[in-house]
Amino acid sequence: MASLPVTQVKTLPDAWDYKGRPAERSKSGGWASAAMILGVEACERLTTLGIAVNLVTYLTGTMHLGNATSANTVTNFLGTSFMLCLLGGFIADTFLGRYLTIGIFATVQATKRKMELPSDPSLLFNVDDIAEGLKKMKQKLPHSKQFR
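^ Proton-dependent oligopeptide transporter family, sequence as received from the core. Prediction below:
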């Protein structure tokens, strides 16, 4: 009697464990990894929605924008952030690979933050610059003449 063909391979062809050895299917992944991924994604969604709610409150309360304008600004922000994820995924899958893409974008983000920070931490938030920027911003708003 002939034996059944083996359909599962013991090691995964494109996966390695933390020591650099080929990953074994029976010892890697599974429900623990899936639960961790789902937990991280749930936390990310909650923080994104929290930022959106706080941004609407900030735009209506502090910046004195209308509800419709604030909601439109926040939806534009969320839509842009989600579309940039798709763009990054397309670039990673088509051209660079995921690790090189993550490395490049992380380097760009770290370099940008390093370039923006002043040498003296006390100059990080200059009140005069913030006040001048808010004054210019309020002058551009059509309904903000009462605040000039």
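The two ends are 92 Å apart (CA to CA).
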